[in-house]
Design brief:
Length: about 280
């Protein structure tokens, strides 16, 4: 079994007024040259047509593909599943934009997406993400109880903000996070605190949160390794978003270098993966 560390195409955007973005092929080259295993395409940041145009860059660079979809209806998931096959994505991460209020109604939506995924032969993982069907930690835990086959992509930054978790993390919240990690088949790299979803990683006041997230990643990796087959790959996605995810100063400039931080997250993930194997 192996850890595969991916970078997000969305995370390579600058979104700096007056500064043109690097061409997408150039960004693919930079990610490949930095030693990442793959690139993730986010349909919340680009439309399906633009996403399809990246297929030659996957072929050219040899980067593995990963797709995140934001379906606003049940059937809207299907074309995303087709694109996933084109870029070699082993599964599709769903940030579902169909959001009933009741958990029973949510479960029907999840089951409908799972049925479509089974028809298309593409596994799904539901991202723990705000403003979507898995917006809330508590309702997501209830969904997991109702749907044993529901698997997750764990971006715990959203739930730290969602629940305004405080330090030290309580035993109850640690238990809830472990329940999420037990059902997580991939992991996303971002560090949050109770009020900010994406912290600069070199500020000393954020170290307590870095330690918390790295402990969660080690726990998640250990749980994954315990149930995986020898040939399986675990994906860790570095996903440090541009503004407004990235905190900016009075001049609108970001407070940290997200590219350097992505390389830092890559190194941490590899260290935590090795540490997790010692826990088995």
């Amino acid at each position: 079994m192996s850890l595969r560390v991916y970078q997000s195409l969305w995370a390579t955007e600058l979104r700096r007024p007056g500064t043109p973005e690097r061409p997408i092929p150039e960004r693919f080259d930079r990610v490949r040259d930095a030693g990442f295993d793959g690139m993730a395409v986010d349909l919340g940041a680009m439309d399906l047509t633009a996403a399809r145009a990246t297929v030659p860059d996957f072929v050219r660079t040899g980067l593995r593909g990963l797709l995140t979809a934001f379906p606003t209806s049940i059937e809207e998931l299907r074309p995303a599943l087709h694109l996933a096959k084109d870029i070699g994505s082993p599964f599709v991460i769903v940030v579902g934009q169909v959001m009933p209020l009741g958990v029973a109604d949510m479960a029907e939506v999840i089951r409908a997406w799972l049925r479509i995924a089974a028809e298309e032969g593409v596994p799904l993982q539901f991202e723990t993400h705000r403003n979507c069907i898995t917006n809330d930690l508590f309702s997501t835990l209830l969904l997991l109880d109702l749907i044993p086959e529901m698997r997750l992509s764990a971006d715990l930054s959203h739930y730290v903000v969602d629940r305004e978790m405080m330090q030290p993390i309580t035993a109850a919240y640690q238990d809830y996070v472990t329940r999420i990690l037990t059902r997580a088949d991939s992991f996303q790299g971002r560090v949050a605190n109770r009020c900010q979803v994406q912290l600069p990683l070199h500020f000393p006041q954020h170290q307590v949160w870095i330690d918390t997230f790295r402990a969660w990643w080690r726990r998640g990796f250990a749980l994954w390794q315990a149930r995986a087959e020898a040939a399986d790959d675990c994906i860790f996605l570095c996903e440090l978003g541009p503004r407004d995810y990235a905190i900016t100063d009075v001049n609108g400039e970001e407070l940290s270098d997200r590219w350097e931080e992505a390389l830092m997250l890559k190194r941490w993930a590899q260290e935590d993966w090795a540490a997790a194997s010692l826990l088995l």
